[in-house]
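Please study the protein below:
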Amino acid sequence: MTAAFDPLTPAERAAEIARPRGRALPLAPLAAPGRRRLPLADEIRPVDRRWRPAYVVWEITLACDLACRHCGSRAGRERPDELTTEQALGLARQIADLGAPEVTLIGGEAYLRDDWLDIVRVLAERKVRVSMTTGGRGLTLERARAAKEAGLAGIGVSIDGDEATHDRLRGVSGSYRSALQAVRNARAAGLPVSCNSQINRLSIPHLPAIVELLGSMGLHSWQIQLTVPMGRAADEPDILVQPFDLLEVFPLLARLKARCDELGVRVWTGNNVGYFGPYETTMRGHYPYGRGGQCGAGRASMGIEANGAIKGCPSLPTEAYTGGNIRDASLKDIWERSAPLRVTRDRTVDDLWGFCKSCYYAEDCMAGCMWTSHMYFGRPGNNPFCHHRALEMQRRGKRERVVRVAPAPGAPFDHGLFDIVLEDLEPST
């Protein structure tokens, strides 16, 4: 098995695993009603017609049966204004008409919405590939078989470590065993199964074991992304990866990619796993240019909230990035005419700041994942979670640390604020 890196001492790890969950804020707050009647531009430009979403992530309900500590939406209770069945099925048809080839249904937990199979069926009938991401607590064999019959093409089950670590991160005892049973149920129903894993200071040393588990259970893909301080993850800054951790994390991921190749497991790196370091081609060689690029929100991707709010990416915060609501305008009009969805179509290097503005890769990268930088600093354009940047800091005898300076208020898709502290490298580093 590939050797693991652990950014925590045994004592620190034990303390984090045992740390009581904070209860000062509601575990599952009620989301505010969706923003409505937002302005749309009169003009549709050629660039707005040129881009079409290659991938749509649709939160069909915020109801959830887990309490994941990384959950950006603080899921648990359904939204007060979730779409009716008629509205949801109409939206499914509009997604197909817009030309999106693939949709992933998420929540909360998608299967907690009574009409979720109807949504799957309408999309599949229109030749859209439909998958679902789940924590798996209630994915019974019967549900898996019904999903397969409705046209679900695949399912991703989240696994974040060994049993103790997974249950700690998912907020419910027994969630690890439920996730493994969900994998078995999905495979028994004939559904292709993948795995999603968070990368944080609790999960990092367990990543090699997760890879071996995927191979032994016959999973076809592994999607990984850094935990970002949105929602509940903003309440636990001590488990977040530090920028200097990437000096160890990326060599580990490269070794795990090689092992995945041996096991026949594809590796999909989330957009915040980057950028332009020596393992970029190793991790993203299957991309069209053999490497990553700029944030695709509003160009290659679209996010939909359960109340019909449309964003360029499902992870982006609701308030700043909602472009419209399908109760007020067509999906096509929102995609082409809303300013929040045009953000990445219009950005230039003049919108960058800090290290990223002067970086050699600035024009190609544009500070990478907008979601990550916005969640840390309240605005996009400067992203210290970059392997190239960590290596450049190391070359200068420096390292960057992020420190929380303001907590999150406790609402879905909220965030706190962090500062970047520049430090001298320790002699042993």
About this structure: The chain is about 35% helix and 15% strand. The mean pLDDT is 95. The radius of gyration is 21 Å.
